[in-house]
From TrEMBL:
Protein's name according to its UniProt entry: Uncharacterized protein
Native source species: Rotaria socialis
Amino acid sequence: MSKLETLTLDLLLDMETAFIDGNRLKTDIINRFPLLKKFLFYIYSLLLIDNPSSLPSNEDIMRTFVDFNDYEITSRVDYFSMNKKSQCLIYTNPYRKTHYYRITNNFSGGLFKYVEKISLFDERPFEHEFFIRLAKSFPLLRRLELSNMTPQNNKKSQEANNDNRRFETIEYPHMTELSLVSIHDDYLEQFLDHTKTCLANNIKLYIFYENLQTGTRNFTNDATRINCGRLEYLYLFNVRNYSKPCSAYFPNLKAVYY
């Protein structure tokens, strides 16, 4: 092992006291393998934390990589106050993985030309501008999973001010799977309202039945009709009183699973 020249790490770790950072990698990896020439990593550290003031900032994490002169490193630190959890992602560039998980509002953008699957989670709302940034960053996106129970602020502000300005329509030309299983209804509107999002054909949608009913106004909402017409498969959760969706509202639907 001491003669190791190439190493790639892809890790998701539950930590007890601290995130994995540059100091830890230098001690445990760099110093132990003096012949190491190529070191690629993608490491998530998850940590329970009671005191957010003790959480290192993104700048703190980046300072621990000061001796990694031959590497371009990206880090992202997030703290979730409701469930008192935190996460730190560190990875080497260029990014060549086909997935990018647990994206939050701290995502700064960039071009990830190999990524086909992403998951989104935050306790803060994802606004329309955030999804514009996502679509530009992941041009080959095929599967998107979203988890966010917080309503969008910009939508509420527009409604309160009777602001009818149109959003920039976002396109996901390669998307085939969309999971909206743990969401506020605003995010169903974000993806199914054709003035906000243009979905491709042949979509598989995973969603709670109640969210689908509410967001489509019991399958009568004209704003969501066009994108619902592009769905091929529905995977419905928490179904109590199921009634078959109107075929006119879902003209291309091949199957419903619940």
